[in-house]
Amino acid sequence: MLHAAINGRGGYASAQNPKEFADEIKNFLGDVIARSQTSASSAAVSSAVLRADSLGFFAGFRSEDWSGTLSGFSFDQGKQLWDAEEILRQTLPTDRKLITHNGSSGVDLEFASASSLSNLSAAQRDALNADPTLNATQDNLGHNRLAWLHGDNDAHATLRSRQGTDAGGNTVLRLLGDVINANPQFVGKTNYGFARLGGTEGSKYGTFRSTSTYQNRIDALYVPANDGILHAFDGETGKELFGYIPSELLLPSGSNTYARISELMKPNYNHKYFMDGTPRVQDAYIDKDGNGSAEWRTVLLGTMGKGGKTVFALDITEPGSFSPADDVLWEFQHPNLGYGVTDPQISRLDDGTWVAIFGNGYNGASGQSSLFVVDLETGNLVKELQTGAGSAANSNGLASATITSFPETDAITRYAYAGDLLGNLWRFDLTGGANGWDATKVFTAKSPAGNSQPITVAPRVALNPNNNDELVAAFGTGSFLRNGDEGDYDVQTLYAIKDNLNAFRLERDDLVQQTITRQEDVVVNRASGNGTNSFTVRETSSNQSTNQQGWYLDLAYNSNKQGERVISRATFPFGVNPDRVRFTTVIPDDDPCGSGRTGFIMDLKLTTGVPSETPVFDLNSDGTFNAGDIVGGYAPSGIQVGYGGENRTIATEDGDAEVVIPGLDPNKLSPGDPCEDGLCARSLDSSIGRQTWEQLR
């Protein structure tokens, strides 16, 4: 379940050449893994395009004790700046700031003392005082458990020791939980463009961003970890600013009487997910204090992913002085909200309301897929848009949503797109009043055998570059989150669906078919004359569309079904040619958490699914894209990568190329030229015109 990536989170700026940059990242990660005996899982950078002050942040985990690592790295200086785990070891447990919600408001989780549980609800106090090894027994060690959460390894003899051994054989404390599926989020001073909104709301946005409070605030990194904590770190120093623990982790689950988070402290602890969802951060215009006057704030919308069923909102405008009572805005729970909720959206609707938008995840009470719209100020439900697809007997669930301002180009959300486990792609109309909102089934994905193909990632949505009156939604199908998924070898598919807001119940017969026409191992001479590069590459068909509503490409070559699937979002490469989309596929082994994954990066035209006319992968390591990257008379549209996880890209200064950092296989992280390992991909000189209104942070 490793999803290692370099994730752009800032404005467009300058960059060094892609080979040097990728080589720097790869060598650094290899060194981190060697020193910390960890597996790479996810990463972030402080800007979408590399610049002199760009920072990299790399998270990982150790499967032997399910601890985590987090490092800050300066690309300009070429060295590690900080190690969060080491800084936590140097921090007194009494100095750490942990926060939760007690059912009424945000409160401090105080360090161990006779009154340390007093801020919590009676149910939370009882649950923390329950022995997880005996369940029904009250041992009154709740304050000791809080001390353990703060990092006190001597909190009580019955609680799990977090001592470990580093690569040098030294005994050290492991004080950070594993980071597996969640992506760290860097929050600097992004301009989200809300000055284009009308009236006072728009005019106040520039004022908000120019205040000394905003300009001087800490650039922070938010890291969800499976110690149950959303950690906030100072991006420059690695110091922990605060940590947030959702209230449900301090309560029992099912028939148990002990707090869920107490599972972490069992001496025989086996891995569980607690905080595993990627948060969303964005500025929003809300009346936080309820005085009738809205103001601009920076809001974090958190999710628990596989770890729980709570969505929460924090005001992180001033992360260095976070106040539980003032800055924990709300928590939201609902019977139809399941596990797996991640990547929520923050939106402004056409009536001026700011809302949180998210799919209901999996295993909700109704069994249906549904979209939740929640008031961002209050946490009150505005509306649950149930699709009617699914039931308790045929359980369904909605993945993350993508929002769009289409047909306008302002910052107002009008529609949302999301897919579900039964293979349905839905368009949600959010225009006008909530009573008029509805869900329309745009498309149903089915395999060649007629089986439903699950959609478990948000679609990417862009304006059709050949027709400004319609959108194109690109996504792949596949699931790797349910028992039995690893043994599912049904054919999964890449799709791009055209929608002018009238598309309705389309099927694969309404689309043009593209196919994998060749898959082969190739050897290419390096341009330097020093050796060769070896790749597995793909050629795909160029079938022309005749007024079809999109295209599809089945992930099978010569009817050879390997269980290849898509469990990460498609991306739009930088370039003057907006007619491109890039998918990353996964070919799993028999163990969902195993290390035997492979996959392909597939780079195709967005509107037709045909390959690019020019090379998109630098096969001969010359840093350019030319005839030297053509093999067997064709430019590959697919290339195998070593691990198959989600990839991210960092653009060069002039836009001529991107460095693609695919899901990282820890066994392949060794010194060398990453472009020789197929990690450099072509771009075409500037950014694509997106319509999803999703800001890079």
Automatic annotation (TrEMBL):
GO molecular function (one): metal ion binding
Subcellular location: Fimbrium
Principal localisation: other
Metal-binding is among the record's keywords: yes
Highest taxon in the source lineage: Bacteria
Keywords of this entry: Calcium, Fimbrium, Fimbrium biogenesis, Metal-binding
CC annotations in GO: pilus
Pfam families the UniProt entry points to: T4P_PilY1 (PF05567)
Domain PilY1 beta-propeller: start-end pairs: 176-522
Recorded family membership: Belongs to the PilY1 family.
Name assigned to this protein: PilY1 beta-propeller domain-containing protein
Source organism: Marinobacter salarius
Higher taxonomy: Bacteria, Pseudomonadati, Pseudomonadota, Gammaproteobacteria, Pseudomonadales
